[in-house]
Amino acid sequence: MAYQEISDDFWKKVEPLLAPFKRKKSGGSLPLDFRLILNGIFYVLKTGCQWHYLPPCYGSKSTVHEHFQHWASAGVFAEIFRLNAEKYQELHGIRWEWQAMDGALVQAPVRGQPVCLEDEALGRNPTDRGRSGSKTHWHVDQNGIPLGVTRVGANIHDSRLVSSTLATDILPRPKPTPEHPQTMCLDKGYDYARIEQELAGHAYIPHIRRIGEEKISDGEKIHPARRWVVERTIAWMKGFRVIRTRYLCKAKNYLAMIHFACALMLSRKLEAA
The pTM is what? Predict the structure, then answer.
């Protein structure tokens, strides 16, 4: 019995992207339906189970895994994310006025490998006794809609990831103007002069919580903290168990799962509207 299935609206957007991957030669066993395969990938994404334990209702586990790796290498899941982000922008609009960034540490067992592999976005986690770990670094709009995400080893500090995360944005950013400035909200981990200069180079107004900053007294006029939206988005993403703990060895496969989760989150928001 299937655990969950992607919606008809979501499949209509995805189906044209998968058409080029259909088998062109005849012969052999009958190919699995691509929607069934995508539902199998969704099952793994949501439950975090090993591919070996994929329920048989989704077909051969090796076939589903093989298609996933093929689609991930071809950038299909990033394209699914982009299509849903464009649709959301068209119907609801991306709120660029107050953007936010933050990182999240993820356990990433390396399965007996002797070292953490930087090329596969693995590093020693300083909060987990130096065990292998990864970090996802997120860029969201004012409502917490994911715009870009990068993944690195857990030993990389958040403050080193501002420009590299902006480079992953799935949608083109409009140019700020004096009438419509754009502010980037960051926590204390980004309280460095070099970060302010870096943000200025990207035409952002920095809104950073200062290290040692005293609590503002009641009645004093301030700009409210807006960093919580990125923390909420990270919490939403960790509802997909394959993202919460990284068991995928290849960084590109892990990023593909993140893009798939972002697309599903946006699709649900579109369908609920």
Answer: 0.91
